[in-house]
Design brief:
InterPro entries: PsiD-like. The protein is mainly α and about 260 residues long. It is built from 12 helices and 4 strands. The termini are far apart.
């Protein structure tokens, strides 16, 4: 069954890369669950936090019921956890789709897993629970700790699924100029440019002359975009409880985002 894919202005990969990577995750989780039924410590801690709260268990069950594409791909919560095991134990890869040699980056693999889950009414309630956000934050922080290690640099290669492959360089340099000329390079002669970890690569500095900051006019404050991202839309004079679209069909407001903080 084809997944109901929303690209969110390019924040997730194209259909081909999305489906191929998702299928790889599902197959990998099936293999892992048969060979190694226990979970990694970060995922085990996440599981314990969820199962300790009957409300979160019920909401997760409802998520699987409300996302009809999921049961054929991820049959249950335990399989979902095995997919998390695969993600938090590996650095992101540059995805190569074998059919036609198609390539595209998978920069945030966990988002692909949560994409379908988040677009359900049960997930709307789940993601607003403090206990769930605390558990998810711990999981993400543990993954973040791993991405600081030397082992996380193993995808910083020129192999087909590496971030310095020819295909990856083509995408990373598109509209930005040559990689070595645009970014702060630690070792121009090394394949990984001297970045020892995934985090070092992901948070690489930009040479000042490649992105000059234009000073604002006097008395006119300006908020600069801190990363390479896409603007969905902009509005003026937004009120505290004005509703706007976010995450599929869910309504949000400034009050929701800031949790009522004035």
């Amino acid at each position: 069954m084809a997944l109901n894919l929303r690209r969110y202005n390019g924040w997730i990969p194209s259909r081909k890369a999305y489906d191929a990577y998702f299928s790889d995750l599902v197959r990998g989780a099936t293999t892992r669950s048969r060979a190694l039924p226990t979970h990694t410590p970060p995922v085990k801690e996440f599981e314990q936090a969820i199962r300790a709260d009957p409300a979160m268990v019920k909401l997760f069950d409802d998520v699987f019921l409300q996302a009809p594409e999921l049961p054929s791909q991820i049959p249950d919560f335990d399989h979902f956890l095995h997919i998390l095991d695969l993600i938090v134990g590996e650095p992101p890869k540059f995805k190569v789709v074998e059919e036609g040699g198609f390539s595209e980056p998978i920069g945030v693999p966990m988002y692909i897993l949560f994409d379908l889950l988040s677009n359900t009414s049960a997930a709307y309630d789940l993601f607003r629970m403090k206990a769930f956000n605390q558990a998810l934050k711990k999981l993400l922080c543990r993954w973040g700790e791993y991405l600081l290690t030397d082992d996380s640099g193993k995808t910083l290669t020129n192999k087909p699924d590496g971030w310095f492959s020819d295909a990856a360089m083509t995408i990373l340099e598109e509209g930005r100029g040559k990689f070595n000329d645009t970014y702060v390079i630690l070792d121009e002669n090394a394949v990984n440019r001297g970045y020892k970890s995934w985090d070092a690569f992901f948070t690489r500095g930009i040479k000042p002359e490649k992105r000059p900051v234009i000073p604002p006019a006097e008395g006119k404050p300006v908020i600069y975009n801190a990363c390479e991202s896409t603007v969905e839309r902009y509005k003026f004079h937004v009120k505290k409880h004005d509703k706007f679209w976010l995450k599929g069909t869910m309504d949000y407001s400034l009050c929701d985002i800031f949790d009522g903080d004035k």
